[in-house]
Amino acid sequence: MLMQKRIIYGIDIARGSPRARELPRYALAILKDGEVLHQSMLRRQKIFNMIQRERPEIIAVDNIFELAANRSELLSLMEKLPEGVKLVQVTGGLHPEPLVRLARKHGLSFDPENPNDEAEICARLADMGVGHEVSLFEDITKIKVSRARSLGRGGWSQNRYRRKVHGAVLQRSREIENTLKDLSREKGIRFEAVNVKGFGGYVRSEFTVYAKRGEVPIHPMASNDAQVSVRSVERDKIRYIPLKPKNPRRKFTIVGIDPGTTVGIAILSLEGELLYLKSSRGMAPDEVVKLIAEYGKPAVIASDVTPMPGSVEKIRRSFNAVPASPGIEVSAEEKIALGKTFGYSNDHERDALTAALLTYRSYKNIFSRIEKKAPQNADLELIKFHVIRGASIEAAIEKVRVSGEPEKSRQREHAEKTEDRSVDESHLKIRETVQRQSEQIQNLQEYLEELKKELLAKDRKISKLESRLNSFKKEAYSEIRKSKEIKIRDETIESLKKEVSHKNKTVKELRRRSNKLRKIQKMEVRGEGTAVKVIAAFTKESIAETKEKYGLKTGDVVFLENPSGGGTATAQILVEAGVRAVLIPEDISHAAEETFFKGDVPVLKNIPLERAEDFAMAEPEILKVAIAAWEKEADEKRHKAKEDELQSLFDEYRSERRRGLV
Q1: How far is CA 148 from CA 68, 141, 145, 207, 223, in A?
Q2: Which of 400, 387, 515, 514 is nearest to 442 (CA)?
Q3: Domain 252-387 falls in which CATH fold?
Q4: What is the pTM of this model?
Q5: Domain 7-130 belongs to what architecture?
Q6: Of 84, 14, 69, which Cα lies nearest the Cα of 46?
Q7: Which Pfam families match (predicted)?
Q8: What kind of fold does domain 527-647 have according to CATH?
Q9: What is the largest CA-CA distance in the chain?
């Protein structure tokens, strides 16, 4: 039987972009045991069809967002990948490294302008174990069993139909539950079930299985009455998991352990990358040791509590690793803040991750100094390991050979050194201990000096910032004062504008009235008409308003637009004003008419007028005739009144004579 070849797909975008309107085209390099096959200008869907057929071990890209425009689209694509197919970003995880530099580091070269070359380099780097697997899903699978169709509005057989559907959901749920129980017994995979009961069975059932989708032997299906959906639980953030290099030297690691019934394990590289984070119930110490060993050689094993628990100490001794613990109690808030970037599923994982991260932070400054002081091509990881074990940076560098020397030479030199060690073993150990402690003191003194310099620099920076802040405060105060003054001025200007606007309206109105008066005056002078001032109502207020606007002088003719309501007092105002005549459209009260008669003011009814707002014009001849007629009638009325008065006196005299009073 022929062994199946390892297949790796390298993909690089050749034209367009997932964010553009036009669909992008890709270059594809298929790597099968060292042999490369190139295909150009393929659409994404065609590549995914090929992935479904060939099921490559790895899909390698230099940037995952060349395949998808956003996280949602990437999630949709990854859900369609066959089980066991990994999507790998070869340039790194959260902090990608340029592809050109990465290729040069691993002895590869290519043309950055050629998409086919880039696709091939991605495939070859992934084949060498370079890159990070992209993980968008938690190790949790959700299974949902529900009815396959609606129950409808009902009818005479509705209950029987409902019982049939709910019974089918119940039966399918029990089958899945039995399968998951077998899986739990065989592999220790935990699951939870929630059932919603209905008439004759279950309305729906939901299972939460704490394992990857590929480890759960349940597949989506649908029948006439029930359906099953299976999906992975999406992570809050994309997680990047480093690939294991081919034929690697065992890497040195920092391991955080949270012991107990459920054991939490976090493994970091000496560069601070998270290699492993998981918790498992009922793990034996030897199983923990075996798992940690798979990810490298622990340089430090840490716990988040002080003193280190006995079970963690036992695992530490198995690797002869350096112990570490924070020395103080770490609050839950600090733990959450530390682990937020990496993500975790429970408190056990969080505590293990806290222990590993705090340990890495305690060495971070020393590691930075090692990277500055170490010669080019030196094995930085091995130097860091020696420093963790207690050596000074200089001593550690001397112990580690430049990586370009042949391995045999290294082994021979090591053998020669071993042969030269003829000194008494106990005396040597004492010397090494003293030397190590002296070097540690020197390192700490150097570190203290660096911290003092950093503190001095920060004090200077704070002083400068405080000075700038005071300057900003002064400027801000000045600006605030200016703005207040400007605001007050703006309000004053706005008030004056309103006042000017009001006065302009008044001036405009007075000009309009003046123009009217001039026009009427001209007409009077030319004899074209007699001006008549219109009073809206026969009231004191209306008379006063007309007097204020246009004035009332001796000889004016007025027109009472609404003569009703006026009496003796109102009529007397017009009499005293000396008006020439009062024109009315209808009868006025007897008292008012009598007052006008006594004041010798003609009251004329139904005189034809030509109106113009508050003024009117009357024909001079018609007005003259009407006034003459009224005066004639008034004379007759006065003459008759005198005759009546004389007759009354004569009658009174005759009466008194008859009575002998005269």
Answers
A1: 32, 21, 9, 18, 7
A2: 387
A3: Nucleotidyltransferase; domain 5 (3.30.420)
A4: 0.41
A5: 2-Layer Sandwich (3.30)
A6: 14
A7: DUF460 (PF04312)
A8: Cytidine Deaminase; domain 2 (3.40.140)
A9: 187
